[in-house]
């Protein structure tokens, strides 16, 4: 799967002001529900919070990959948000996070879920991509950085 197939301008936000882990997950859930009639904001938040209780999705270097599986979802979607300032997200390196790449996947897509996570993690391991995302002033800039 290509990253362009799961990201979209209407699910990308730049320089969101936020100060807590719970609040960023609420913002992400709101973005997901606002742009998809099949998604309930509370259900998304519940799925993301449940996953975080199992262990932080903060993978280090200021990046987090919150993710969850949702019943009734037809295809994988991504929500990409940057924050200003970076926030404490209990990342594995104990550094604050400012890039959130959230994946929502259909409940039944276990293998696809892991493959998509691996693809996104690979893309976000590229230093130039991360530098471009951090310099982004608009959602368009973020989308371009991911291409």
From TrEMBL:
Organism whose genome encodes this protein: Alteromonas confluentis
GO biological process, one term: phosphoenolpyruvate-dependent sugar phosphotransferase system
Highest taxon listed in the record's lineage: Bacteria
TM region positions: none
Gene Ontology terms, MF aspect: protein kinase activator activity; protein-N(PI)-phosphohistidine-sugar phosphotransferase activity
Name this polypeptide is given: PTS IIA-like nitrogen-regulatory protein PtsN
Database matches in InterPro entries: PTrfase/Anion_transptr (IPR016152), PTS_EIIA_type-2_dom (IPR002178), PTS_Nitro_regul (IPR006320), PTS_SugarTrans_NitroReg (IPR051541)
NCBIfam families: nitro_reg_IIA
PTS EIIA type-2 domain mapped to chain residues: 5-147
